[in-house]
Specification:
Shape: elongated
Helix content: 40-55%
Distance between the termini: 28 Å
Strand order of the largest sheet: 1-2
Number of helices: 5
Number of domains: 1
């Protein structure tokens, strides 16, 4: 399976349609779980429940990983990066008081970007 792009409902529908057993079956995830729809957090959490998951990082996944390390999104947020970050913010995974996730200055910058962006809202 590849190119989930934050579409949690579609991910669940695919797993259900094939009668996927999270404990026994193997899923090879071909990348691009992030960017696109604003349910990336839910997609990642669902995939992590799969005991036999083989996950390959896609270019969108790599962009978000690089953002988390450098605070610079290589695609300049034009490919769904804002929706990805919004997914984590709405699930309480990034807080201005948590330097392991984002620095307060970066967090405030992103919040302002969200508020002025037509891409997604929190």
């Amino acid at each position: 399976m590849g190119d989930v792009h934050g579409a949690h409902k579609a991910l669940l529908q695919c797993l259900e349609a094939v009668g996927f057993d999270y404990r026994i079956d193997t899923l090879i995830q071909l990348g691009d779980v992030v960017d696109g729809y604003a349910e990336v957090y839910e997609c990642v959490e669902t995939l992590l429940k799969i005991k036999n998951l083989i996950a390959i990082r896609g270019n969108h996944d790599d962009w978000f990983r690089r953002f988390l390390m450098t605070y610079v999104h290589p695609a300049l947020w034009t490919q769904g990066g804002m929706a990805t970050l919004a997914s984590y913010l709405k699930n309480g995974c990034a807080r201005p008081d948590d330097p392991a996730i984002l620095s307060p200055d970066i967090f405030q910058y992103l919040i302002k970007s969200f508020l002025s962006s037509s891409v997604c809202t929190i």
